[in-house]
Structure formats: C-alpha cells, structure tokens
Amino acid sequence: MLVRTTIDVDEDLLKKAMDLLGAKTKREAVRRSLEALVQERRRERLRAKLGKMDLDLSLDSLEEMRQDQR
Questions:
Q1: Distance of alpha carbon 64 from alpha carbon 51, whole angstroms
Q2: DSSP notation for 23-57
Q3: pLDDT of 70
Q4: Residue 65 and residue 2: Cα distance in Å, rounded?
Q5: Rounded to whole angstroms, how far apart are CA atoms 13 and 60?
Q6: Domain assignment of residue 20, yes or no
Q7: For position 59, what pLDDT does the model report?
Q8: How far is residue 60's CA from residue 53's CA, in Å, rounded to a whole number?
Q9: Under a CB-based contact definition with an 8 Å cutoff, are residues 16 and 29 in contact?
Q10: Which domain holds residue 42?
Q11: Whole-model pTM?
Q12: How many other CB atoms sit within 10 Å of the CB of residue 23?
C-alpha cells in the first residue's frame, strides 16, 4: 500500500543517499533507505535474541538452508 505524504528532507542528505544507493529518483532513495533501515533493525533484533553463538557454518551450508526454506 502506498501512502502519499509531504515531508521536509535535507536536500544534501537526500542527494548523498541517492548517490550511495544509485537511486535515480528521490522516491526510490527514500524507499530504499527505509527498506535498508527496517532490514538492519530486524537483523539487530535477531542478533539480540540469538546472543553470541558459534554456528560454524560455511557459505555452502547457509545456501542449502536458504534453498530448504523455499
């Protein structure tokens, strides 16, 4: 669901975000920035819940686990 809203955004900050993200539009930069923020916070919460665990997983085994979840 899209919501139309008006916000004041620091133009220099928005331009930096667009450059870093390779975004062509302001809308894309804001959307991708929000997605990145949500993803990062979810990772932080997961890390906090899991604590420090030594999983000793290889990239191959992680990929296999991802495939199994589909």
A1: 23
A2: -SSHHHHHHHHHHHHHHHHHHHHHHHHH-S-----
A3: 65
A4: 33
A5: 38
A6: yes
A7: 85
A8: 19
A9: no
A10: 11-69
A11: 0.66
A12: 17
DSSP SS3 for 60: helix
- The model's pLDDT over 33-57, given as tens digits with 9 standing for 90+, comes to 999 999 999 988 888 877 766 667 7
Nearest to 7 by CA among 30, 35, 28, 24: 30
**Per the domain annotation, does 39 fall within a domain?**
yes
- Alpha carbon distances (Å) from 59 to 1, 16, 66: 35, 33, 11
Distance CA 41, CA 15 (A): 23
| C-alpha–C-alpha distance, residues 61 and 58, integer Å | 5
Structural domain includes residue 2 = no
Q: How many domains does the chain have?
A: 1
The pLDDT, as a whole number, for residue 54 is 65
